Amino acid sequence: MGDSTTSATTSSATPPAVASIDSEQLHQTLNAQSGAEKRALSYSQTIHKLFCQTLQSKLPGDRILADYFRAHKKHGSKDRRVIRETLFGLFRWHGWLKLIPLKDDSQQAITEQWFAQLALTATLEAHSWQDIVSAWRGFAGLGEPAINAQADSGSGSNSGSDSGALEAKQALLTAAFPGQAFPLTALAPDWFWAHFDQDSDKQKRLVESLSTRPPIWGRLQGISLAKAQAKLIEQGIAASGSDYFDDAINLGHKSINLNGVALYSQGKLEIQDLGSQVIGNICAPRADESWWDACSGAGGKSLQLRSLMLQQDKGAKGSLVASDIRRKPLEELSKRAKRAGFGQINTQPWQSDALPVTAGHFDGVLVDAPCSCTGTWRRNPDMRWLDDASAITDKANLQLDILCRACEAVRPGGVLVYATCSISPVENQQVVEAFLAKRPDFSLQTLTHPFTGEPTQMLTVLPYQADSDGMFVAKMVRQGE
Fold first, then answer.
1. N or C: the chain end with fewer CB closer than 10 Å?
2. Cα(first)–Cα(last) distance of the chain, in Å?
């Protein structure tokens, strides 16, 4: 979801227990008899394969999982849920699980180590498939009291940041493995802490958020919250609003088949994290302005900017150009814009180092730069173990280069917005400071943090502030008219 900068591929990240499970030997050794035991054994082998494949390939776990399910149609919805939630639970708690000591060096102990991780993950996550968990616990040789102590310790990945719940889980592991420490900061790799605030309370609150999964946040387009909630209830989806943005909607934690949601197919609902929505609201485009989204990807923020224009004036004449070096995301943006009925959005790919748009033309330019994505670790717990420190340190030059190029498209008096989904100053504050040193014709604008109300010129959204991903945004004005 780690003690060295190469933890994703070292034995510390992949314990010996995880590296050597032989299918035939397991059947002979464990002698699974009941249906639950056989299913538990089958699940364990599938999850082991996916876990190791993710660590070894360094590809995102959701991509590995999607490819697996595409190739194995036999799995029903329950199978998919057990496999998916256990896999990502393993990564969420990997920093602690890899500290579990082996009892001895025998093959049986190695087998026990893996099943212990599965059983403990299910307990920490409060998973409901207790027959499977019981089988894993039996295969691991874990006693009932040690890992059945979940009681009131919280609901794992489905709850918000909760210190008491996390400390109860920490106590659970300490009781199961006396003498072994399970520090909170172990839930993120050591290299990360060199790039985060050293305040112990902030570190603790961040870890608390990393041990939970954020809800599915959406953004409404052309429909009120009350009407959207009523339509979603008709489809059995309970949703709530946000205290911060009128068009934000919280869809809870349950997996949703978006293609079956009418609001989504009608273009009235887009999935966008609340932290990401901060960026568009900081841009605050006027209804008649021209904007360029210089690193648009599939255009979530381009759509948000257009939606904000239309909220001010249903006939908004403002326009947007979206650019990216990849054509497929731009094609996806075009489909999304058509679904939403949004005109005034054009795409223009980057084809060289030269600007793909007219210099000095735009009222606003958004640079949502490529980054380490450390702010999304709650949603993608595998990524914290797949990357090393270079994920943060290697991108600053690229980020500064993109910012210096894109700023030429801002007209005098226009605004330049720099954003990332990183929470590291190396990719955020330091890049902005380096840019301003090169371009004194730009100056920072004071912002109000939407979740804390504090004034700032460098706005960092931390995951625990509003149950969201982490983000960074700074807004600059180009001098002159």
1. C
2. 48
CA nearest neighbour of 180 among 116, 244, 234: 116
Domain count, the chain: 2
- pTM for the model stands at 0.89
283 and 184 fall within a common domain: no
If asked whether residues 472 and 364 sit together in one domain, one would say yes
**Among candidates 279, 238, 175, which has minimal Cα distance to 167?**
175
Q: Tokens in use for 160?
A: 């918000």
Instruction: With respect to residue 405, please indicate whether it lies within any of the assigned structural domains.
Output: yes
Q: Residue 480: its pLDDT value, please?
A: 80
Instruction: Report in angstroms the alpha-carbon separations of 257 from 77, 261, 265, 340, 452.
Output: 12, 7, 11, 18, 33
Tokens of 303: 């759509």
243 known member of a binding site:
no
Q: Are residues 184 and 278 in the same domain?
A: no
The series of mean pLDDT values per 10 residues for the chain, 481 residues long, is 29 40 55 80 92 94 95 92 96 93 56 86 92 90 54 40 78 88 96 93 95 94 96 94 96 90 96 97 97 96 97 95 96 95 95 94 97 96 95 96 97 98 97 98 97 96 96 96 68
Dist CA 274 CA 18 (whole Å): 36
The two structure tokens encoding residue 1:
């979801």
Is 421 a catalytic site residue? Answer: yes
Show the 3-state SS of 135-160: HHHHHHCCCHHHHCCCCCCCCHHHCC
Alpha-carbon distance of 293 to 310, in angstroms, equals 17
Which residue of the set 371, 373, 407, 421 is catalytic?
421
CA dihedral 372, 377, 379, 381 (to 10 degrees): 120
What pLDDT is attached to residue 5? Answer: 26
398 near 258, Cβ under 8 Å? Answer: no
CA nearest neighbour of 163 among 197, 125, 203: 203
